[in-house]
Automatic annotation (TrEMBL):
It comes from the Bacteria. Residues 22-239 form the ABC transporter domain. It comes from Goekera deserti. The keyword Transport applies. Keywords: ATP-binding, Nucleotide-binding, Transport. This is ATP-binding cassette domain-containing protein. GO terms for molecular function: ATP binding; ATP hydrolysis activity.
Length: 240
């Protein structure tokens, strides 16, 4: 199976060149030893914004979960930051927002607390574990909230937010960790057009500063101008 790619204009990264951020070669991902997506070849450089598209069940989530080590790699090779994915120690280099989130809305947590939790896993060289939240942490949280159009929501209870607002809060949590690779599984599902545009501007800014973004998208919508390449998966029917 070959994935099709559509090139789009790209923004030059400013974090500098280096190894590929993501390199997937001849990979198959699946569940219970059953491949659901095969023959995946995908390379993302610093500052790339790549969309993964495909029909329901085509394996988009399996692909992104597989490259993060959350779904079994059944064949081929996945390298992240120039090393085999299994050797990646500092997981905080990656921000991931899964398609289905399990934020317990019965647990009382404010939007700021949720987004701040995105800073907790930063390793010593970026934030000491015992260190109290400092100015840099507060700024990162504020920027993240702004980046998803939730500035001013920080004291609201997460459980009181709408589905689309909760989704944006989860994206903000990933942004707060200042990841080098941001993996978003359907980040604009259920998000209104105005806030999709806010997220598009945020992603463009991240890419310009060298963050790499891989997003599963059913429709590109307002993200179209900021997406550099589209990788399309064949539908489950076409695979047979
Ligand atoms: N945990 C799991 N265990 C077994 N099979 C799974 C699991 N998760 C997904 N699958 C199967 O893998 C296939 C691909 O699912 P996946 O969620 O990756 O598709 P998708 O392209 O993201 O679909 P959608 O657009 O509906 O989100 C489907 O046939 C699905 O039933």
């Amino acid at each position: 199976m070959l994935l099709t790619s559509v090139a789009r204009p790209r923004v030059a990264p400013t974090r500098g060149p280096g190894e590929d951020v993501v390199s997937v070669r001849g990979a198959a991902f699946g569940y219970d030893r059953r491949p659901v997506v095969t023959g995946v070849d995908l390379t993302l450089h610093r500052g790339d914004v790549v969309a993964v598209r495909g029909a329901n069940g085509s394996g988009k989530s399996a692909l992104v979960r597989g490259l993060l080590g959350l779904a079994p790699l059944l064949a081929g090779q996945v390298d992240l930051f120039g090393r085999p994915q299994q050797q990646l120690r500092d997981r905080s280099r990656i921000g991931y927002v899964p398609q289905r989130h399990t934020v317990a809305t019965t647990v009382p947590v404010t939007v700021r607390e949720l987004v701040s939790s995105g800073r907790l896993s930063l390793p010593r060289h970026r934030r000491r574990p015992w260190q109290r939240f400092g100015e840099a942490d507060r700024c990162a949280v504020d920027c993240a909230l702004e980046g998803v159009g939730l500035a001013g929501y920080d004291r609201r209870q997460l459980s009181e937010l709408s589905g689309g607002e909760q989704r944006r809060a989860l994206v903000a949590r990933a942004l707060a960790g200042d990841p080098e690779l941001l993996v978003l599984d359907e980040p604009i599902a259920g998000v209104d057009a105005a806030n999709q545009r806010v997220l598009a501007a945020t992603i463009a800014g991240l890419a310009a500063s060298g963050t790499t973004v891989l997003a599963v998208l059913h429709e590109l919508g307002p993200l179209a101008p900021v997406v550099h390449r589209v990788t399309a998966l064949p539908s489950a029917g076409e695979r047979c």
